[in-house]
Description:
Blueprint: E1 3-8, E2 13-19, E3 21-26, E4 29-33, E5 40-44, E6 47-53, E7 56-62, E8 65-70, E9 73-78, H1 88-96
Parallel strand pairs: 1-9
Antiparallel strand pairs: 1-2, 3-4, 3-6, 5-8, 6-7, 8-9
Amino acid sequence: MAMKLKVLLPERVLVDEPADKVVAEAANGSFCLLPRHVDFTAALVPGILTYESRGTEHFVATDEGILVKCGDEVLVLSLIHISEPTRPLYISYAVFCL
C-alpha cells in the first residue's frame, strides 16, 4: 500500500504520485516515512527529499518547508525547489551547479 506524495510549490504541484518510501531532512537529522508510519509533521531544512515510486528512487532538492503525513497522504510544502525529480545519475550534477 503506497502513500500519496505531493510536493507543493506556490505556483504549481511539483510531484503528485504514489510513494513507497519518503526520506527528508529536519533540523535534527534525516528521517524516513513508510506507508504505515504514525501521522507526522516536521519542519524541513534545505536538502534532498528522496522518494521511491514504482521501484525507482527519485531526488528533489528543496528549500525550507514543512512536511505533513496524515493517513496515507504526505504533503510537502516548500517556497522554492532547486531541481526537478531526478534519478541518482543526475543528482550530483544538480548539486554541483548550486
